[in-house]
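User: For documentation purposes, I need each entry recorded in a consistent format: the amino acid sequence on its own, followed directly by the corresponding structure tokens. There are two entries in this batch. Please keep commentary to a minimum and don't merge the entries.

Assistant: Recorded as requested. Entry 1:
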Amino acid sequence: MDTSVEMVAWIACAVIAVVLGGLAYMNFRNFKKRSNLLNRADEMTGSVSGRISEVVKVYRSNSSFRWKNEYPVITYSVGDRDYTAKLDFAEKRAGHYSIGDTYRVCYVPSDPSCCIVEEFRKALVSARKRSLIGMVVLCIFFLNLIYSLISQIGTILA
């Protein structure tokens, strides 16, 4: 194979590896964030009523359709301070959530910003699982590309 073609193939593989590595890292961060919340669930002895203060619109599309989804932002008060929880993992079709709807918020009394909205606990567990699966799959492809690049460089240098 021509040397310039090999070089372009290496660069393309390296770029793809960097993109896959970045995506795997993003999935890892999401998994870690959601795991930290679920791991502290036993500490969440405080409970208040929260309400949807905002519905964030998210635009999705594929090759055929475009549609709007949304996820809720829950506001709750502990003492004299207001807190918010953005539930981006609870994304649904537009029109599903209504501003003012109330939900039960469980929080850590020493850190009220650490909370789980009880009605969305199942969605949080599912989102954590999806993040873990996505991270593992992307890491497999990432490591495969890195191994291929290293072995090709090793063959050329030998």
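Entry 2:
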Amino acid sequence: MKFDEYTLHARIYPGLICAIPAILLVATFENEALTQLIHEVAGIEIAGKASVGVALFFLLMQLSRWIGKDLFERKLFAEELNFPTTDFLLASNTKLSTPFKATLADKVSTDFGLALPSAADEQGDETDARRRIKDIIARIRSVAGQAPLVLQHNWEYGFARNLVGGSTIAVLLSIIGAIVHFDSALGYIFGSCSIVFAAILLMSPTLMRRYAGHYAQQLLYAFAGDPR
């Protein structure tokens, strides 16, 4: 796994947060047979519960990304057709000012030899208009996606998406922990975790749209040479 700032902020940090109930369960688990099974499946050769906790963390990190990207993101943004980068460049969308959108249209035409869909194009076939914008955004990302502020907003969005993905697993493990340890202080900790991760899941559309919007704006600003 490539270790860079995106991996640290967008994958490891949300993975650590969502791994809290898993690590607590492993730390208090006494079934050595099941522990060894998890140990072997994860491919970790170091003995002991600590190694199983590390293995569970990396497994959870991968699952969080898969659930966040392949389930939540695809459903919410319809394979990028409804991603804010696409929405903002629709003729009917008023998020960006008319002069700024004209600047973007001119630059898209100059740099790529392409035209943003017109209002008539959008009214005639909005889905096709969105596909055309999606293709243009891919080109914009290739030339402006490495700008420092774009990268920052990219990992912020990745953090939110992967936190949402990991919360689906974390809330289930927290509920299991609350049931198993209902008569101890750990039961209250697991119960609190259940509430927190459930709240994240309830807020997931808002969280993902918010950070995706920030990323989309910064990407378009960077492409246009706008310093903000």
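Summary note for entry 2:
Residues 41-48 have pLDDT under 50 and may be disordered.
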